[in-house]
Amino acid sequence: MADKKYRILVVNDDGVTAPGIKALIEVVKELGEVTVVAPDSPQSGMGHAITIGKPLRLDKIKLYEGVEMYKCSGTPVDCVKLAVNKIFKGQKPDLCVSGINHGLNNSINVIYSGTMSAAVEGAIESIPSVGFSYDDYTWEADFVGCKKYIKEICTQVLANGLQQGVLLNVNFPKNDKPLKGIKICRQANAKWAEDFEERQDPYKRNYYWLTGVFQNNDKGEDSDVWALNNHYVSVVPVQFDMTAHHAISSLNAWNFNI
Amino acid sequence: MADKKYRILVVNDDGVTAPGIKALIEVVKELGEVTVVAPDSPQSGMGHAITIGKPLRLDKIKLYEGVEMYKCSGTPVDCVKLAVNKIFKGQKPDLCVSGINHGLNNSINVIYSGTMSAAVEGAIESIPSVGFSYDDYTWEADFVGCKKYIKEICTQVLANGLQQGVLLNVNFPKNDKPLKGIKICRQANAKWAEDFEERQDPYKRNYYWLTGVFQNNDKGEDSDVWALNNHYVSVVPVQFDMTAHHAISSLNAWNFNI
To answer: Which reaction does this enzyme catalyse, per its entry (chains A, B) (predicted)?
Structure first.
């Protein structure tokens, strides 16, 4: 039975029609009153981009029963800003959830991901925020196995809160083996080894497609990559203070010749 | 006299024709061999966006004497990835500098800024990287006062290196008073209080322009906002590990009912 005291904002980066956001809506509808603001087109890889050089559209749509829904012409971060400012009008929601992303956002992907950047923006707005991603890129991805974890994690976040400036990045491994449970992790030290495939257009001009291989150089068993490889759901606390505090003292030892 | 042993990558987000990147090129030409890869159009606010759904163009251009230059159809982060992969071909440059941005990128702006995201991407690629920004949004901005600081900071970075995973975010205050020197800082706890101006198009449909006011709630005298308000050049070490390490232990105390 739905307890309607909580107000929950749902966003994503795959667009308002993606199966992943449908699955997420189905879960959080059981926890409270849901408002969806999602991009009107796919916005994967948009990172923390915002739209400043052109105006935005925000249109109410009907897609799923009992859910207030809007599509937005902007980025995932724009969706959060517009939701807070124009829909919730300063009465901030109790929870902001983003996803479920079609594809992992573990490790360094947190910085490229529109899904996670929407959750980061939620946290910047002081809303308890969680991003969810699943290791299946396809439209046919089966999110059923994720649902009880999402409900439990959201329930805990609503009950316990999150520290100011902290949000959660939750990733689900492929569902080829049973899930072993939840691991609280740190972001693995991994990166993309990029390549660009060079092609020629019909006018003999070159163009490039980004491709790449994910390379994990981190042997630690406390990382999200390790957890996912070992069939755990990874939960990484994320912060948006990007200061490398540990580097301040050594920089203060530099002698600037000004 | 130019010492040509260093190879330096220059990027920005205001586009290849911006006066800010011209000023930066003029400084780093004195330190080594310069390669410029910059967006062919303004990319402010693009954050860490990458282009994955469409191909990229990368074209060699001639703009400034003695400098290898390319314009790119992608984001600032795309520029760095293409430079490393297609121009330097894995022989990474000794330094990546981004900017000079027309406008500040202090505090939380680091996460929205294309200029800073390009420098972050340089650091992800293990290249010592620095982003420069100046508190003047105009095309006519006078970057002369920034130049000796940029040269000194780049010289120190080339001599001392930077810790793995750390880059620098350098901001210059308005030039209405003399600069007092350099302060090593942390990112201020500040945010944008957004507003969206609502308008109607000629077809009576609503649209929204993002506006906002920068709000600093941080009284600390070790922040970049304080330094800039007090006429110092602020230097913040930035990291791309977004893990909130301090939050891991409290999350491990949660009892997940799975």
So the answer is: a ribonucleoside 5'-phosphate + H2O = a ribonucleoside + phosphate
Nearest CA in chain B to A57: B207
Please, what are the domains in chain B?
6-187+220-251 (3.40.1210.10)
Rounded Cα distance between A78 and B36, Å, is: 30
Minimum CA–CA partner of A77 in chain B: B112
From A173's Cα to the closest Cα of chain B, the distance in A is 16
Contact A210 B165 (CB under 8 A): no
Angle (deg, nearest 10), helices A19-28 and A144-160: 50
- Which of A95, A88, A53 has its CA nearest to residue A74? A53
CB contact under 8 A, B186 and A81: no
CB B169 within 8 A of CB B117: no
* Lookup: tokens for B24: 């930066």
Q: A132 vs A20, A104, B98, B177, B239, CA distance in Å?
A: 9, 9, 32, 48, 23
Question: pLDDT per residue over A211-254, tens digit each?
Answer: 989 999 999 999 999 999 999 999 999 999 999 999 999 999 99
Structure-token pair, residue B99: 């900017």
In chain A, how many H helices and how many E strands?
7, 11
Interatomic CA distance for residues B29 and B6, integer angstroms: 10
Residue B139, SS3?
Answer: coil
Cα A27 from chain centroid? 16
ipTM: 0.94
Q: Contact B172/B254 with Cβ under 8 angstroms?
A: no
The CA distances from residue B195 to A78, B114, B160, B208, B211, in Å, are 12, 21, 43, 9, 5
CA dist., res. B43 & res. B12, Å (int): 9
Per the CB < 8 A criterion, the answer to whether A258 and B181 are in contact is: yes
Cβ neighbours of residue B189 closer than 8 Å, sequence gap 6 or more: A165, A241, B107, B216, B217, B218, B220, B223
CA distance A15 to A13: 5
Query: Distance between CA A178 and CA A89 in Å, rounded?
Result: 42
Residue where the block lists tokens 């890869």:
B37
CA distance A9 to A235: 20
Beta strand residue intervals within B88-243, DSSP E? 95-102, 129-134, 166-172, 182-184, 190-200, 206-216, 233-239
Q: Which residues of B touch A111 (CB under 8 A)?
A: 48, 120, 124, 240, 242
Query: How confident is residue A1, by pLDDT bands cut at 50, 70 and 90?
Result: very low
Residue B106 has pLDDT above 60, yes or no: yes
